[in-house]
Write a structure and sequence with these properties.
This protein has 87 residues and is of the alpha+beta class. It has a single domain, classed as Alpha-Beta Plaits. Strands 2-3-1-4 form a four-stranded antiparallel β-sheet, covered by helices on one side. A hairpin with a 2-residue loop joins strand 2 and strand 3. The chain starts with a strand and ends in a 6-residue tail after the last helix.
Length: 87
C-alpha cells in the first residue's frame, strides 16, 4: 500500500536520519514529504518504530497518511457516516 509521510523535525541530525530511512521505502516528493510503499502492516509497524526511535517525541512531528489512487468523494463519506460531509 502507498502512504504519504510528512514530517517537521527540528534537529538537523535527526531530520537527516529520518530522510535516509524513508528514502529506503519510497520517493522524496517534496522537502519533508515522502511517498512510500509498504507491503503489509507489520512492515509499516516496523517503520513507525524506527521513526519513533530516531525522533524526539516532544519536539518533532511525523504524519503518515494512506494514499488513495482514486479521490474519495463526498458520496463515499455520506455512505460511511450516513450524512453529508463538507470538504
Amino acid at each position: 500500500m502507498k502512504y504519504v509521510v510528512a514530517y517537521d523535525i527540528r534537529d538537523s541530525k535527526r531530520r537527516v536520519k529520518v530522510f535516509k530511512l524513508l528514502k529506503g521505502y519510497g520517493y522524496n516528493v517534496q522537502k519533508s514529504v515522502f511517498e512510500i510503499f509498504v507491503e503489509n502492516n507489520s512492515i509499516l509497524k516496523e517503520l513507525i518504530d524506527e521513526i519513533n526511535n530516531l525522533i524526539n517525541l516532544e519536539e518533532d512531528v511525523v504524519y503518515i497518511f494512506p494514499y488513495y489512487d482514486k479521490p474519495i468523494t463526498n458520496e463515499s463519506y455520506k455512505n460511511f457516516f450516513k450524512r453529508e460531509v463538507s470538504f
